[in-house]
Amino acid sequence: MTPPTHLQNKQSDPDSKPQGQETLTLTLDGEEVTFFAGETIYEVAERHRKEVPTLCYDPRLEPFGACRLCVVELEGARNPVASCTTQAQPGMSIKTKTPAIEEHRKVLLEMVVSENDGIEVDPLRGYASQELSTLVDRYGADTGRFQGAQSGCSKFEDDNPFILRDYNKCISCYRCVRVCAEQEGDYAISIKGRGFETQITTEFDGLLKDSACTFCGQCVQTCPTGALADRKALRAEGQDGELQKTRTICTYCGVGCSVDLVTQEDRLVAVQPAMDGPANEGALCVKGQFAFDFVQNPDRLKKPLIRREDGELHEAEWEEALQRAADGFLKALDEHGRHSVYAIASGRAPSEAAYTLQKWIRSGFGTNYIDNCSRA
């Protein structure tokens, strides 16, 4: 499973033009490029395929400028400027990669990782969990250069089944806090303390289950270090097998959220939101992200069951079971009419199955008596 270079809901075509926007120009790494009013330098650089590193940036959130890794040289400016918070202006001359800027980024990374208890984390922890380790490798940063006291204070006692709070890996980028507030509107997690005493916390410093947390998992998927991790996915940590992703649509309700199923060999080990999903843009609910254990549950039926003359359910072959079901439906139709048949699709079935079921009810029985167990 290839780690993302960054969250992927950004413009990818350097020549794409928002409708009604005036085309402006500036100089980027010696080349005149176009941009549009309201864009930041970082957005312009990203659209023109310039690699500008960042740890606090998420395109779904308001720019924050905390990590300072995205600094660039701006002609006429006294110091490097944070590209994620600086608006692009006509006539600017910008350099995204110079020896001085690259050294600046390397030193910043070394300061960040020197307080971290380990940067190598399993990609199962979350969608963006490899961002810090990827940057450290790219810049060859010395992880022990500024080694000293550590301010992280993990909450391993938080016994919720979904989210691991391993704050010894936290770098105070606040992406988790911001996504909870700006995207979910839950404000379940916040910040306490100042300076070296800064900590990510909940109200009254309690457990997530006692807070306003809805366990949507957005904080997990935006965390660039794995400090917040998918607890259910980590059950597969250390097991053999390559991780692979398969894009599909969540079937728990009618929104149509795009998800990536993370598999290891023949096992489903995690569900991650698709950052470029048109309906959800990286968001999922607690069911969409965490309610997948039924797929490999040992209690799942492997054969259809038929109730025979003794009143007990017995295993049967599919042909017999389907014929028994067809006979029952036809009998109900003949004796009580088409409105005696009502179908409820399962939110745990594929979307193709839901479509087939409603088609069968509407075309086969001439009624709209069809619903889904997770519609509400």
Description of the structure:
The chain is α+β, with helices and mostly antiparallel strands and 376 residues long. Among the domains are: 23-110, Ubiquitin-like (UB roll) (Roll), CATH 3.10.20.740; 305-372, no CATH class. Helices cover 23% and strands 18% of the residues. It is built from 8 helices and 16 strands. It has helices at residues 41-47, 99-114, 131-139, 175-184, 218-222, 286-290, 318-336, 351-365, and strands spanning 23-28, 31-36, 71-74, 81-82, 93-95, 163-165, 189-192, 199-202, 228-230, 243-249, 258-264, 267-273, 305-307, 313-315, 343-345, 370-372. The strands form 6 sheets. Strands 2-1-5-3-4 form a 5-stranded mixed β-sheet, covered by helices on one side. A 3-stranded antiparallel β-sheet has the order 10-11-12. Helix 2 (99-114) packs across helix 3. It is elongated and about 85 Å long. The two termini are 34 Å apart. 32% of the residues are buried. The model has no long low-confidence stretch (mean pLDDT 91).
CATH class identity of the domain at 23-110: Alpha Beta
Largest sheet: spatial strand order: 2-1-5-3-4
List SSEs in N-to-C order.
Answer: EEHEEEHHEHEEHEEEEHEEHEHE
Give the C-alpha Rg. Answer: 26 Å
Number of strands: 16
Largest sheet: 5 strands, mixed
Unreliable runs, pLDDT <50, ≥5 residues? Answer: none
Mean pLDDT: 91
- State the helicity in percent bands: 10-25%
Query: What is the global morphology?
Result: elongated
Please render the helix and strand layout as text.
Elements: E1 23-28, E2 31-36, H1 41-47, E3 71-74, E4 81-82, E5 93-95, H2 99-114, H3 131-139, E6 163-165, H4 175-184, E7 189-192, E8 199-202, H5 218-222, E9 228-230, E10 243-249, E11 258-264, E12 267-273, H6 286-290, E13 305-307, E14 313-315, H7 318-336, E15 343-345, H8 351-365, E16 370-372
Parallel strand pairs: 1-5, 15-16
Antiparallel strand pairs: 1-2, 3-4, 3-5, 6-9, 7-8, 10-11, 11-12, 13-14
Helix pairs in contact: 2-3
